[in-house]
Every structure is written in structure tokens, then in C-alpha cells.
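Incident review: delayed structure delivery

Summary: a single-chain prediction request sat in the queue longer than the usual turnaround. Root cause was a stuck worker, restarted by the on-call engineer. No data loss occurred. The affected request and its eventual output are reproduced below so the record is complete for anyone auditing the incident later.

Affected input:
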Amino acid sequence: MAERIGMVSLGCAKNRVDAEMMLYTLKEAGYQIVSDPALSDVAIINTCGFIEDAKQESIDEILELASLKKEGKIKAIIVTGCLSERYQKEVMKELYEVDAVVGIGANGRIAEIVKETLEGKKVQEFPDKENLTLCGGRVRSTPFYYAYLKIAEGCDNHCTYCAIPMIRGRFRSRPMEDILREAKELSEKGVKELILIAQDTTRYGEDLEGKPQLAKLLTELCRLESVQYLRVLYCYPERITDELIDVVAREDKILKYLDIPLQHCNGRILKLMNRHGDRASLSELVIRLRSRIRGLTLRTTVMTGFPTETQEEFDELSSFVEEMKFERLGCFAYSAEEDTAAARMEGQLDDSIKKHRQELIMEQQQRIMAAHARHRIGKTIPVLCEGYDRFAECFFGRSKADAPEVDGKVFFVAQGKKPSIGDIIPVEITDTLDCDLMGFSH
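Output delivered after worker restart:
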């Protein structure tokens, strides 16, 4: 009987795609893939190492599986992903129960690494980051009706707070023909929503053609007959061109939803972050996007407590959030990441200040999102059905304004034919539950 492999993938959707490609490699090598790592012979933790909370989650997962190994339920533990790439020597030294620690450049060799650990070998392998393959088969871990489409890897932006360039290497785009091929295959298999991801999607193709090619890629994707929905995440504000805005506005298959992490609005703080713009330029961008893309949902991310952030600069951020009234917004308290330029800056703020400012922004945003939700009462909107809640005795799903895992839900009672998971059905909105919507389908 083939050895059983279980995997836990933590962190972002980009990491999830890496995990899916490793699972495909293992399946092709003859291993049996199981959904629960606790029932596996070899457990793989595909870690995140972006911020302190993510690192701690990765370590906690490793320790939980280590206890199962001590009980004889698991034969070997392999650590992959960002944490192992970033802390190459420390992981096995501090967590002796781990049998293999490998960098992202070794993902293509995961089947051989599993074999070596089952033979009792300790493996530490960190080839060049750019050995990470961007193309290949995947064992998808998302529901059948949506899939992530990674269009590039790495990052050249070098924001001072971010360790991603150190972990993932330079920005490198996938060939367009390979992305189109995968999109066609996925959509023909029933995927209704393709979600484009990269560390910076708006930079796509710059390394291949000398200028960004996202607008061209989206246009080509829209020409694929089987593609229904396209959602674009992780756009950088300074690379949102008129050409890109025109494509998003024009193409019906592109959801009118853009994720644009702004991080702050104060010019001095943005400059310290090695980012561009100020409140005036970012406000102008938001106004321009909303005026040219009808029905646009804007998601952004902001950060509180960056080194030297004054109360006045935080108040400016709060005022900006209130003025722009983003439909979706996440807020992080600044985390001083080792070896980043920001971690070496003077003027580090106390955690209590950073967290308090984060809480204030999120309380403010909850009120804004609740108001946005109330404005949708009385409207009938298409909803992608994701399941049935037997406790609430109703179905739930997502509107076009909601990305999976980060945004809200639509809860609805089916008054006519009961929908199946993956169906896109019209739902009349009759009420709200905090920031979520409630209604019924006919």
C-alpha cells in the first residue's frame, strides 16, 4: 500500500498554489494523498513566514504534528514554504522532531525528499529560489467552482517592512501562453471563478516584454469561451494604468472588484515604506477608478504603527478611510520583521499603540461596510452558492463583490428550486447581518 501524505498549507493563496503543485508531484510519484495530516505517514507543513502571527501559526502546527510523531502516528515531518526558506538553519535546530526542512526551490523534488525521510534520513535542502517552477499540474484544494491562477512569483518592490523579496526572490512572470492554457483547462473542468494572484499582479509581464502586460493578459483570458468570472487581486496603485482600467470596465467577464493594498495615505510614511504617493494622489486614483468602472468594489489593506507614525499621521489615515469609504478593507498592525529596513529604523512604536490604532481602524471600517451592506437591501444580485448551513437552515454564498476567504457572505432561503453548490443564482436582498447580506432566491 502506498504511503499516505498529508499537507497543511498556511498563509496566502500563492502559497496554496505551491502546495497544490507539490501534491500533484507526490500523486504522480504514487503516493496516496489524504486530507488529514494526522492520518498520514508523512506530514508536510507548507509554512508562512510573512509576519510574526503567521510564523507562530506555522510553529504551532509543527509542534502539534510533532506530538503525533512522538505517539508513533506519523513517520516523518517535512517543513516547506516561506518559514523554512527564511530560517534555513533555525527550524531543524529548534524543532528536532522535524525530518526535513527545504526551501521553495526544492518543491519540484518533494517526492524524492519524502522517500529520503521515510528511509530515516534528515534532509536540509535550499537550492536557488528561482528553481521554484511556475508551471505544472495541481491537486486543487479549493472547491471545484473557483481556483487561484498564479501569474508571477517573487517581488521587486522592496517595501521596507516586507521580507518577501528575501524569501521569494526577484519578480518573474509566467509565460502568457501557459497561463491561458491552464485557465482554459480549469474553466472547462467547471471552475466558474478564476482569481489572478501574484505578489504584484500589475507588474505582470514587465520582465518578459519590458512593460506590464496585465491588461493584455486579461483581454486574452476574456476571449476564452469557457471562462465565466475573472477576479484580480494584489494590484499596486502606481501601476494601475488607463489601459488596465479600460479593460476592467469594458470586459463583462472581469468582476468589478479590485484589490489594491495602499498601506497608508500619509506621504512621509509611504516614503519610509519605499512606496509611492500621498493622500491627494491616492484619493484621485480611487475617484478615477470609481468614475470609470461602474459598480466597482474596492478592497484595500492599510497598516498602523509603522516606525515614527505620529498621532496626527494616524488621524490622517483614519480620516482617509472615512472619506474613501472602501467597500472592503483589512488593517494590520506593523510587525518588525528581521533583516528588513523598517525593523532597523528608530522610532519603533509600542505594540499596544500599534494594536490600538488597528482596532480603531477596523471598528471604523465595520461601520462603513455595514452601511454599504444596507444600501444593497431591495436589490437582486447574482450569488455563487457555496453550501447549506443546517443550523441557520439556509444556503450561503458569495456575491461578485466578495472574494473567497477574506470577504463576506450572502445567506439566503431558497423559495423556489433548491440550488446546487456552484450554481450562480439571483438572490433578493432583504436584510443584513453585520456586514453580511440576507435574502431569498426565487
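Verification: The mean pLDDT is 92.
Action items: add queue-age alerting; document worker restart procedure.
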